[in-house]
Amino acid sequence: MTTLLPPRPPAASDSPGKGSPVRPGRARLNRPGVAWTLPATIFFLLFAAVPLVAVVVLSFMTWTGLGEPKFVGMENWQTLAGDSVMLKSLWLSLLFIVLGVVTQTPVSILLGVWAAGPQRNRAVLSAIFFLPLLLSSAAISVLWRALLDPNFGVPAQFRWLFGDGNLFGHQSTAIGVIIFVSMWQFTPFHTLIYQGAAKSVPPVLYQAAEVDGAGRIRQFFSITLPQLRNSMITSVILMVVGGLTTFETVLILTNGGPGTDTTITAFYMFEEAFRRYNFGMGSAIALVLVVVATAISLIMVKLSGYDKMRSTMEGV
């Protein structure tokens, strides 16, 4: 038999006035105050916003680093618009990005999925493979420059394979060397991204696929790759931004040569500003690089749906 209890009398805290609960529509969020943003805001202004404004102003001036900058209006931009080396550097930068994505992405995915598995000695092999992440780009470039030296390096010992051995003397081989060295250095970083994503795939999906008779290859293309979509977008965007800002690898390996065959935009900016002491032109090139990098990133974000990414994990 069910006993009906009398309604509970309203408590003092339930009555309107002081101490009454706030309505859901008027609930206040306990957010940090504006003062918490001051350190990050000051850091951004000093090291990002102010230098960018200075570069914009300097792009309309001529300055050798000595004396006072002189205002020249649109002269730098007009010279840049008709500069064939600048146009070539942009195409080379885009080529480096495409080749970097095409070579690094498949290898990174396969290694990341493998590193996420339970294989024997996986941890030891992964640690050895990730060693390039501990080295600087300059050190890696010096290492490979010595290894591929046309007089004393590996190509000189195997001329039947490398021809004259001068891999840095031809555009195609010089570009191939830069792409290979970049791949050797940065593939472990992107492998870490895919390894973490692969570990997050719910095991129940693979168990269900095994029950349905799907093999490892079918599971990889039907389960693993779709689950890695968001990580793949993130990785490719990082490759694009990194490819546009690559500098020390080109400087040490090829110095932009032969001729201007590997002079990408970032290296061309360095040449104009710090070798020819034309800081106005260098600033204009830097702004072009910023605009191109921002435009490519925004296009990728829009087309890939990166800004609307949601977890693809089961139950999330």
UniProtKB/TrEMBL annotation:
CDD domains: TM_PBP2. One of its GO terms (biological process) is transmembrane transport. Residues 1-25 are annotated as: Disordered. The chain crosses the membrane at residues 33-61, 90-116, 123-147, 167-186, 236-257, 277-301. Its main location: membrane. It is a multi-pass membrane protein. The keyword Transport applies. Keywords: Cell membrane, Membrane, Transmembrane, Transmembrane helix, Transport. It comes from the Bacteria. GO terms for cellular component: plasma membrane. Residues 90-300 form the ABC transmembrane type-1 domain. It holds the Pfam family BPD_transp_1. It is found in: Cell membrane. Gene3D superfamilies: MetI-like (1.10.3720.10). Residues 1-10 have a biased composition (Pro residues). Belongs to the binding-protein-dependent transport system permease family. This is Sugar ABC transporter permease.
